[in-house]
């Protein structure tokens, strides 16, 4: 007997009400889509029992409270089920021994199969329907986090007799328990599962509801397993029981709490899926019965007729069950739910229903919901809608491949919806969420393959979809799918024999077909990256790499990217570029196409070598023997290398005049495996390649070609193959040629005459010298070529080059000089000398390392009794000489200044361009010298290395600082041209850092370009981790330098008589001065903020912060000195405005009361001493002190501060010792020199924060100042 359903609504009325609106001609009107936007989470009372509606209203406030305030986890155990919130939680520990909920226990422990659990439940339902249905409600409550106390007691309650108030009370109790539940106690939730246990339980939960419905149909009290004749049949199923169970669950789908809505909706959808699955089975039986009926005669025909009618009747009842209570009550309201995961659940289940029963659901009135949800605010819902729309395409494809297609899915039924929402589908291919994009492209690919897009003429649509294949910011999956979309449009990829024949390709010529595909793909790439304004030389050919990577991902097309003979054949044939429609492209596209084909080959080789070669092969650290460690990969790499090696010589000849093609060609040899070079049958190709690469290196003027040639030549001289000597000889020939060329050109004399004589420098000879130096520098960077020049000759060679550069610098101001070409000569000489210096110092380090290894092996401190700290070697003397010459050359570059010319007005002149180039080169060279000859080497054990150390770099620092300050820090290249040179050496030598130099870097944290700001932020992050105390010292140096610059820029007051123009000029300077002070405060604010958020990121800096602020206070109250060392009365009080930027650091102090009191006391002492100074004038200094001082100390003291008064023992206990008296009276300031002792030796030495350091003369004196200081920014 089936339990009667309270307030049951006729199933047909559900379907009629929910779906009737889609049967008219406006199924896709805008009004329909607006229903989705306006619908809220509530379900109208005519679709669920009124008792539930009231319960939902009763719980609405509690649910919203949970979502807005968050649930407070109770420490008490609210469930009889013990749930351990631990990563080690197992299903066995989630249920206590006394757990009474048998369904929960079975689903968690899985002691029995889900089918058995469901069958047992239906058996209990047949005996006691009320008790069994209470179990169903209870398992829902418990799954979402409810405790055992909220379960419905079947002995006390009859579900049909529960009134509205009782339902409301029960739901309220469940929601209250859920608010107390921990994350691990919630097994089913309207969001992604957060634990493995929850994910596992969710699978069991879904399978349980499916199995319950399946068992109810066949095992319910109203079901019969056999027909009257005894033959098995499914005609008699207990549909009413399933309907009753579904309706029971739908009572909870409108509850305000989203987890309950999700769980109940999921239960309803899973039961409907079971019903649809049974319908599919019955439909198969019906088809068999109908065929038998058509062939039967007599009594047998009558029996089969009855069976057919019975099957049709049951199928109709079951279809009404699904379209009624499930899709009219659950889906029609929950697809607009406020929770994205519930909306996603609706999309997924509707798509499943469509492929299970296409005749019922593959209709516009259901498909339209997917189109609407493509505009959902949630990426998860949009993704689910796209997957759902594509599911019929995928399902049909799989059925055809498996030979199981029954013709039930007619893709033509998808046409209306897909074309209606095509623009939105296309828009999803560039969705803001990258997880949505591939699914949109997959759907577009399905539409294209099925011919839905044949009539689309919108070029914007095609361009947007096709561009994704070469979009560098798209995901790898997205690009691969988009490339498949492109390939479907290219005729060359049609493998139909008729199409191939039309292209002149026979069915047996497979390589010719691949050549056609490569050529067509290259034509498409060229067309995509070439626009009307595209310059061929600047075409983005590198995007070809993305296409090759995508090809390797697509299984059907992966072989194209490794068919070397076909790719090379396509390059050699040089066919005219065509469009995707096989029409001839324009000339520009054809030129780009050749570049694309070469890049295609390079990218394919690089990808293949990366997959089959050693992990170290592409990084340049391959072993000398060139071994391949991956199993079976050696043969593949050798085959690749043989094909490329055979083709390269001819390709060099073919493209000898195209620098862009040669750049890519010259890079190919370094991907070849060394073992191929040793093959006897490849000797001719190798020697030819070696010769052509060498000749190309000497002839080319393109730096990109030179770099690739140098790397390939270096690769061929390594690896231990039998022709290493040939490769080394070729490099020696290049060095000899360059050496002779340079030696001949550097001896030419400079001349100021317009007409150059023989033996004098002219434009052509200077260009040739610069090119030869560039070629030497590039090759020297790949390896130490000093031995090829001659160890005995290298010092003279470098000396000659240095003299050549110095002569160009000294003669730069003369007339008729080739300054453009000379700037390259000077720059390259600096670079070459730096490279040689680096190799020489590296050899000293290597020698010392080898010596240490030998000593360790012998277990002695020195070999043969020699002292490790012996005499300097000749190599050491050479290094020192190279270093000193290079330093002097940099001095020459920095000392060169224009005479009588304004920088801003003449910055585009030839001389100013020359000056900018050589000083930029000098800046980088200084940075390299300080890195190679690091100051820390003065502590090396080896005497030679100690001699190499650049200990006194104060003058270099001064030059570098002046150069950086001369640059426009708002320009983008400021970071690379200036800041990088200083920052990288500071970080490398932070232990012995000059904090004034670091201050120069930090002073650019505000007012600079975005790139400079990012670089400084990275610099601060690294420096803070290395030594935060030193970073604070650099902060102080930076602020003081900027403050002194601001003081120096203060305009002089006007005299008694002045003109209007003078007044306007003075006003403008005053405004600029005000801006400078505000910039100083911004600088201090940003520096302070870089130390942490709410608390210092490096706790060790907290004690040092007190010393930092004290030093700032000391500086603010100090008096600048005259040349004789006495206080300067004219500048007394001028530094009080330093308290303004210093104030930003007090936020770190006021967090600690003891430190706060210490700073207040120190400030009051300094203030009192300041007021007692002989130069103090109440009329002049009181207002300035009040403006800056009260603003400063007010951060720590939240009251209007009166003048500090300290007398007696309290004052004497904190008073510093008196300073020597000045000529006009006594000065008790604790800093009697311009730079305090704590600033010279490390301002926080007493806290263990620093050591004595050599200080460079960086930054200038403020000079004579007016007696009063304007209160810029103090107010």
Automatic annotation (TrEMBL):
Comp. bias (Polar residues): 41-52
Entry's Gene Ontology molecular function annotations: chromatin binding
A Gene Ontology cellular-component term: chromatin
Annotated spans, Disordered: 26-83, 848-874, 1208-1275
One of the GO BP terms on file: sister chromatid cohesion
Biased composition (Basic and acidic residues): 1238-1256
A Pfam family this chain is assigned to: HEAT_SCC3-SA
Compositionally biased intervals (Acidic residues): 26-40, 864-874
Domain SCD span(s) in chain numbering: 331-432
Family annotation (SUPFAM superfamilies): ARM repeat (SSF48371)
Name listed for the protein in its UniProt record: SCD domain-containing protein
Species for this entry: Triparma columacea
